[in-house]
């Protein structure tokens, strides 16, 4: 085999091998891997459809989601109301169009899911980095705080915050974010404990860099893969938790259309108006399935053991 001239590609290849960097042509292999996975494409399609419905809800909704027409209450799907509006998914007990409320409810579910995950990730990643990098008493304090958080029942914390602050969209995000940061903190802490003794971290310390730039530039990028996977699944779990809190009267106010609120209001009419609860429940199920399918692919893709199989 012909050797590579030292003055050309040899040193570059050597530096790439020494730094254990992937070849340039494989850095952007994830679009091909995503397109080659049917389940991931189905999940991505579902998620994009939900996002489109949330953004275009004012144009797709056939009626005002809060408009009450008592003469049209509990109309079956595909029924035409008194004012000539076709109700594709029927109406609820107050004559409100179910399709319109499902479309507008997607906004609340996505907003709560993404905002709560962002809040939990910010708190958890920050505390995990501090605990893993500093160690000692700081690590013990953060981990004991995490143990206390895990020992506190979710419903009890939600009830306490709702009683103090009152139910609301912002308070729902706060409850879900506070109760979800521990998973991020534990994963980041474990990764930081192994990364902080690497050669490049020690070299950054020797060059006089401060702890915060080292943790941000050198430690966090190397523990980001499990964080992305946790956040992906957490969005689906948060959406389910928001629906449960709203169903119990501790989440989103009734005036704001949400899938959980629709289920809560429809529980007394399930025997005579199945569509009132079926369609918001189906929307939650399909959205969670889509996010989980995409999260499964992302978990396999970011796993070094399965990198060649994805």
Q: What's the structural blueprint in terms of helices and strands?
A:
Blueprint lengths: L8 H11 L10 H6 L2 H18 L1 H4 L18 E2 L5 E2 L10 H37 L1 H16 L2 H12 L3 H10 L2 H15 L3 H8 L4 H9 L4 H24 L11 H8 L7 H29 L8
Antiparallel strand pairs: 1-2
Helix pairs in contact: 3-5, 3-14, 5-6, 5-8, 5-9, 5-12, 5-14, 6-9, 7-8, 9-12, 10-11, 12-13, 12-14, 13-14
What class, by secondary structure content?
A: mainly alpha
The rounded Rg comes to 25 Å
Instruction: Determine and state the CATH class.
Output: Mainly Alpha
Q: What about the largest sheet?
A: 2 strands, antiparallel
Distance from first to last alpha carbon: 31 Å
According to DSSP, the number of beta strands is: 2
Tell me the number of structural domains: 1
Strand content: under 5%
Looking at CATH, the homologous superfamily is: MetI-like
Strand order within the widest beta sheet: 1-2
Q: Could you provide a short overview of the structure?
A:
With 310 residues, the chain is mostly helical. It has helices at residues 9-19, 30-35, 38-55, 57-60, 98-134, 136-151, 154-165, 169-178, 181-195, 199-206, 211-219, 224-247, 259-266, 274-302; strands at 79-80, 86-87.
């Amino acid at each position: 085999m012909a050797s590579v001239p030292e003055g050309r590609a040899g040193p570059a290849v050597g530096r790439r091998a020494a730094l254990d960097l992937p070849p340039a042509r494989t850095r952007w292999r994830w679009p091909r891997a995503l397109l080659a996975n049917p389940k991931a494409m189905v999940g991505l399609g579902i998620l994009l459809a939900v996002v489109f419905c949330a953004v275009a809800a004012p144009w797709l909704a056939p009626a005002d989601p809060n408009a009450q027409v008592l003469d049209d209450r509990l109309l079956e799907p595909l029924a035409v109301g008194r004012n000539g509006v076709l109700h594709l998914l029927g109406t609820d007990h107050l004559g409100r169009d179910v399709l319109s409320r499902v479309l507008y409810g997607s906004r609340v579910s996505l907003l709560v899911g993404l905002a709560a995950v962002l809040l939990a990730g910010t708190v958890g990643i920050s505390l995990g980095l501090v605990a893993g990098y500093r160690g000692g008493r700081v690590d013990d304090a953060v981990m004991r705080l995490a143990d206390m958080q895990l020992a506190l029942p979710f419903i009890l914390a939600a009830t306490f915050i709702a009683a103090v602050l009152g139910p609301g969209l912002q308070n729902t995000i706060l409850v879900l974010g506070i109760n979800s940061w521990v998973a991020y903190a534990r994963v980041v802490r474990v990764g930081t404990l192994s990364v902080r003794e690497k050669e490049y971290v020690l070299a950054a310390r020797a060059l006089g860099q401060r702890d915060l730039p080292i943790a941000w530039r050198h430690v966090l990028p190397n523990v980001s893969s499990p964080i992305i996977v946790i956040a992906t699944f957490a969005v689906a779990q948060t959406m389910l938790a928001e629906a449960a809190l709203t169903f119990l009267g501790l989440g989103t106010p009734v005036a704001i259309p949400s899938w959980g609120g629709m289920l809560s209001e429809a529980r007394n009419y399930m025997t005579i108006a199945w569509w009132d609860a079926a369609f918001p429940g189906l929307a939650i199920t399909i959205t969670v399935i889509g996010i989980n399918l995409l999260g499964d692919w992302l978990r396999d893709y970011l796993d070094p053991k399965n990198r060649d199989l994805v």
